[in-house]
Amino acid sequence: MAFDDLARHMASRDGKKLRSAHLANLSLCVGLGGAVAFQLTSASEGASLIRTLLGLATVVLAVAAFVHRRRDGGGIVRPIVGGTVGLVLLAGAVASIFFASFTSTSGAWTYQSPDNDYRLALPSGCWREGVMRGKQSKVMFACSRPYMQAAVMLVKSDQSESDFVSAIARAREFMDSKPGRRAASHQGVNASLNSYHYLTTIDAGAEAESDRVFVADCYTWKPSKRLLVQILFEAPLTMLSIEGKEAAAMAITASADTICKGVD
User: Fold this and answer.
1) Could you tell me if 239 and 248 are in contact, meaning their C-beta atoms sit under 8 angstroms apart?
2) Is residue 79 a contact partner of residue 66, using CB atoms and an 8 Å limit?
3) Among 3.90.45.10, 3.90.1150.10, 3.40.50.720, 3.40.1000.10, what is the CATH number of 106-260?
4) What is the mean pLDDT of each run of 10 residues along the chain (264 residues)?
5) What does the alpha-carbon distance between residue 171 and residue 199 come to, in Å, rounded to a whole number?
6) Where are the domains of the chain?
7) Is this structure's pTM higher than 0.70?
């Protein structure tokens, strides 16, 4: 709570009884108080709006202090520090609003296969249908923020539960075949009573060894139709900031979970 104590201290200082000093102290008080709020509150829309207003107030007060110092000869350090704190607070608030949009479920929709064999739940309206070109074109879905894609790699009929288990074993063997790469397992029965099992790992990027890509290889078995559906989910981990990485990771893992459990 060091920021909180410092904010109260700056608010109580008289400085040199100059208007610029009072404004600079108030700027630091508001800015540091906002920094404390940033640490203690969530990234909800309401909290982000409050942070934005506090950041704006901090910058305005710092600018006012800087203007008045020319008239009364006040110091320059505190207005600069106050303005810097305000700008950092504003940047954090804007980032929170932007990253909060990653986990939005607005416009969630369901894809229906042309032959009516299966349906697939998509997490939000940001997901768009496309086609993966190759020897055999495959239906795929992509989200632009953060970038993610999911492709239906296999739809196979007349499959038993043992075929389902064998497919998962082969997928795990492939994931674990690369040194340092280990698969995490997620399995269960979804709302449509279909068995699902998906494996997740972090893989190296195709272009650079330092790049990282989240991968989920999902298999769903529909006992009512003896149908096996494989979905490959991928998302590059490109965010640089800590908050960006956390927000993107939450969005990616939540989307992968929704899609991998969403085959009906």
Assistant:
1) yes
2) yes
3) 3.40.1000.10
4) 48 53 73 62 59 77 75 73 76 64 70 91 87 78 86 93 95 86 89 93 67 88 95 82 66 86 89
5) 8
6) 2-101, 106-260
7) no
